[in-house]
Amino acid sequence: MALEIEFDKTIVPRAPDDPIYDAAAAARLAFWRTRGEVQVGFAAERGEANFYNQTKWFGPHRRVLVVRTPDVLTLATDGLSTPWAGVTSLENGVECELFMEFDAATMNDKLVSDWADTLLNIGDFVADEFEISAKVEKRGAILFYRLADEYSPLSDIILSRDTGRIVGLPFGIVPLVRATPITEIEIEDEDLSDEWATQAAIRALTRRRIAIPPTNNQII
Q1: Beta-strand (E) ranges in the chain?
Q2: SS3 breakdown of the chain: % helix, strand, coil, rounded to 5?
Q3: Is residue 74 within 8 Å of residue 99, measured between CB atoms?
Q4: Which residue, 46, 148, 133, is CA-closest to 95?
Q5: φ, ψ dihedrals at 26, nearest 5°
Q6: In contact, 79 and 61? CB cutoff 8 Å
């Protein structure tokens, strides 16, 4: 009797040095290079990882890129869409990346560093929550994060749907999610009782003339 053994790699957890992580990073870098000049290095990075190479974003990448054009400076998370380490799921992490846009003329090195750290913190909350990118896709916008007092008069972060999509990732396309800081006064007279304060968030962005692509209004 002959014994035949078949190896099914889909049931084997990804190793700490799996090349899929670098492939994901390369796809994101290629995308952002179509949007502007990508600064060498990272504006912020927290690489503390466990034995499986999991950071708080569950993959090895937990960092923020800087992308520049003459008029706009963009900060973008780089790692939320990295496939998770030590698991077998065929998913691009939490299936999104966040970005913030600023007037390039107003940004100095300290502001870039401060906002990059804040974007990392927001990314931590996105990684901890369940299907935030799907909620944003369905609702259009959500009131998501409270800023530290040092950012006053800015007080909150709205996450909203964007038309941007990153292609070439290991397990398909992931959407960009825009992060917009707003002031308390922009929502002080709003009804925040609906889940995620969606209507208040949408109206605040509308007043700022930030377009939200159409959604199908299906609530998760």
Answers
A1: 37-38, 44-45, 63-68, 72-78, 97-103, 141-146, 154-169, 172-183
A2: 30, 25, 45
A3: yes
A4: 133
A5: -65, -40
A6: yes
* E strand or H helix that includes residue 16: none
Using DSSP, state whether 76 is helix, strand or coil.
Answer: strand
Torsion angle, alpha carbons of 106, 108, 110, 111, to 10: 20
Residue 141 φ/ψ, nearest 5 degrees: -160, 150
State the chain's mean pLDDT as an integer: 91
Q: Which contacts of 187-196 are long-range, i.e. CB under 8 A and separated by 24 or more positions?
A: 187/143, 187/156, 192/143, 195/219, 196/135, 196/139, 196/142, 196/143, 196/144
- DSSP, res 208: T
Q: Which residues contact 75 (CB under 8 A, 6 or more apart)?
A: 43, 64, 65, 66, 67, 99, 100, 102, 112, 115, 116, 119
Encode pLDDT of 51-78 as tens digits. Answer: 889 999 999 999 999 999 999 999 999 9
pLDDT (tens digit, 9 = 90+) per residue, 96-135? 999 999 999 999 999 999 999 999 999 999 999 878 999 9
DSSP string for residues in 40-66: SS-SEE-----TT---TTSSS--EEEE
- Number of Cβ within 10 Å of residue 53's Cβ equals 20
The pTM is what? Answer: 0.91
